[in-house]
């Protein structure tokens, strides 16, 4: 039995089809490209500008256009070949990294155009990934596909930042950054090459706006959407500001790579232990304790930001995020399957979830941007905003408590 085979519950061997293997290769190549550069794009912009406002502006613009791009990609996916959306997303990612490489230090003067390209490309790419994952897998091999994808993704998230950090250290000036951006470009190019080998999957129909918005009339989905928004409000800022802070206190891209390696390693171990030994009756406790202790680790950063507090946050979040995420993913997927009418509203459900995520990310990053733009002493204001992040993140427990029986 090869590594692409697994025995299902009935004892039959399920083999990933050629299209599923190709799609898995695409995801792996994209994962490697993103792991090399995602963190360091923000570090590069900060290093050039020496201003967190510029980094927040780039992320804010990206998130603002991400949602309409995601929606438009969803509408297109019901009209054209679905793989075309992942091709469009890949092309825009290539354009983004070409621009970064070509502009170099002057990238900081083109933050809005760069944010637009990155956000639109991400919207198209992630809509397509969400939809094609269902199209190219089935009930017999979906768990195995997700497991393989999770393993490859986790390994790339450990090795990518570590490798990128030390490449930047090895090469003088900004040559190291250009090297990792060029490597990302090549991996994205290889990924796009493989998309042309995906089979065509067209199910022409109209995007059902009415049904999508009608979902919010159901209390269960509305509460799940509130949770998505509250988590995105917290994670939208933490997804880039933590890495900036680590770089600010260490002054070393190599140490930043080490930090990412250590924290991601802890996260992988936690994901494995919970998946392997977690029991059904523990899931609600995982959600509560994961949320509470993650909030406490953020509170440490309200008090003081140094390498020790950042490491405490990193290690705590590496344990607490899997504790919360695994049972919450189960709960949200159960809810999605309840409302998607046997797959007829699959794209609408994915877009509905993204609407909720954008409703959290955009105001959150926008607040950070305004703090650094308007405040004469942003370092004094940020702790209050971090406290707000903690409170909003904790609301997830309130909204989920009524549906813990669905876990």
From TrEMBL:
Compartments where located: Cell membrane
Pfam families in UniProt: MFS_1
Membrane topology, from the record: Multi-pass membrane protein
UniProt keyword Acetylation present: no
Main location, first listed in the record: membrane
InterPro entries, sorted: MFS (IPR011701), MFS_trans_sf (IPR036259), Sugar_transport-like (IPR052528)
UniProt superkingdom: Bacteria
TM region(s), chain numbering: 21-45, 57-77, 84-104, 110-132, 144-168, 180-202, 223-250, 256-274, 286-305, 311-334, 355-375, 381-400
PANTHER family named among the record's database cross-references: INTEGRAL MEMBRANE TRANSPORT PROTEIN-RELATED, MAJOR FACILITATOR SUPERFAMILY (MFS) PROFILE DOMAIN-CONTAINING PROTEIN
Protein name (record): YQGE family putative transporter
Organism name: Neobacillus ginsengisoli
């Amino acid at each position: 039995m090869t590594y692409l085979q697994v025995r299902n519950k009935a004892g039959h061997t399920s083999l990933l089809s050629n299209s599923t293997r190709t799609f898995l290769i695409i995801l792996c190549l994209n994962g490697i490209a993103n792991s090399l550069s995602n963190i360091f794009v923000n570090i590069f912009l900060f290093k050039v500008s020496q201003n967190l406002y510029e980094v927040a502006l780039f992320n804010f613009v990206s998130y603002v256009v991400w949602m309409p791009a995601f929606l438009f990609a969803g509408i297109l996916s019901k009209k054209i070949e679905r793989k075309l959306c992942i091709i469009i997303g890949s092309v825009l990612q290539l354009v983004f990294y070409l621009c970064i490489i070509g502009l170099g230090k002057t990238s900081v003067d083109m933050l809005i155009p760069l944010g637009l390209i990155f956000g639109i490309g991400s919207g198209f790419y992630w809509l397509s990934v969400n939809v094609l994952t269902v199209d190219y897998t089935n009930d017999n091999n979906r768990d195995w596909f997700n497991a393989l994808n999770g393993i490859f993704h986790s390994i790339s998230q450990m090795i990518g930042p570590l490798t990128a950090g030390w490449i930047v250290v090895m090469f003088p000036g900004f040559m190291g950054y250009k090297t990792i951006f060029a490597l990302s470009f090549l991996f994205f190019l290889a990924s796009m090459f493989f998309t042309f080998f995906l089979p065509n999957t067209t199910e022409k129909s109209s995007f059902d706006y009415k049904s999508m918005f009608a979902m919010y009339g159901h209390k269960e989905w509305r509460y799940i959407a509130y949770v998505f928004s509250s988590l995105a409000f917290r994670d939208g800022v933490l997804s880039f500001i933590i890495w900036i802070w680590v770089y600010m206190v260490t002054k070393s891209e190599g140490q930043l790579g080490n930090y990412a390696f250590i924290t991601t390693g802890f996260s992988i171990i936690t994901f494995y232990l919970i998946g392997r030994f977690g029991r059904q009756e523990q899931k609600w406790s995982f959600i509560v304790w994961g949320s509470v202790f993650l909030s406490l680790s953020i509170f440490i950063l309200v008090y003081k930001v140094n390498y020790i507090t950042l490491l405490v946050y990193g290690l705590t979040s590496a344990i607490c995020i899997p504790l919360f995420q695994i049972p919450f993913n189960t709960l949200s997927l159960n809810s999605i399957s309840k409302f998607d009418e046997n797959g007829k509203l699959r794209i609408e459900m994915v877009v509905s979830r993204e609407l909720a995520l954008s409703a959290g990310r955009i105001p959150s990053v926008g607040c950070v941007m305004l703090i650094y733009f308007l405040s004469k002493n942003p370092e004094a204001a940020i702790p209050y905003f971090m406290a707000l992040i903690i409170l909003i993140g904790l609301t997830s427990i309130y909204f989920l408590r009524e549906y813990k029986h669905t876990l």
